[in-house]
Specification:
The chain has one domain: Nuclear Transport Factor 2, Chain: A. A hairpin with a 2-residue loop joins strand 2 and strand 3. The chain contains 4 helices and 5 strands. The termini are far apart. With about 140 residues, the protein is α+β, with helices and mostly antiparallel strands.
């Protein structure tokens, strides 16, 4: 009777744990080079500028003027604090030998925003990057 209970416990535990482990497997996301003009290409280009320390160019090219960079003071604060902190982290998000690929785990549309989750640290949670259309171009709404 005791061995039957032990066997049943092992089977039930395996039945519950294995599907959850497979669903959370970060290797399920593919590391790919984004297509030109896609929101993922915007994230890639923005992250490459941040890693290279080209923050003024990042602001001119990728900062949403109404949501992330509405005033000169907000832009100054963004460059000094947010982008400086992001620079220390986002280089892990760039994949491949040329650092021109991303590992996108999921995309979530929230109203006008598009949240793209990247697997930056294999042992950590995916990191979200939020974009919003500014005219015809995608821009960062949150970094």
């Amino acid at each position: 009777m005791r061995s039957l209970l032990l066997a049943l416990t092992v089977v039930l535990t395996a039945a519950l744990v294995l599907p959850a482990t497979a669903a959370e497997n970060p290797s399920a996301a593919k590391t790919e080079t984004p297509k030109a003009g896609s929101p993922e290409a915007v994230v890639l280009g923005g992250l490459q500028l941040i890693v290279d320390g080209k923050l003024d160019k990042w602001v001119k090219t990728y900062c949403h003027k109404d949501k992330l960079c509405p005033t000169p003071q907000a832009t100054k604060s963004l460059k000094r604090y947010n982008l400086a902190a992001a620079r220390r982290v986002v280089h892990h998000c760039l994949k491949g030998p040329k650092k021109d690929q991303l590992e996108v785990t999921r995309r979530v549309e929230e109203g006008k925003d598009l949240k793209i989750f990247l697997q930056c640290n294999p042992k950590g949670s995916p990191r979200p990057f939020t974009l919003r259309k500014d005219g015809d171009a995608w821009k960062f709404r949150r970094i």
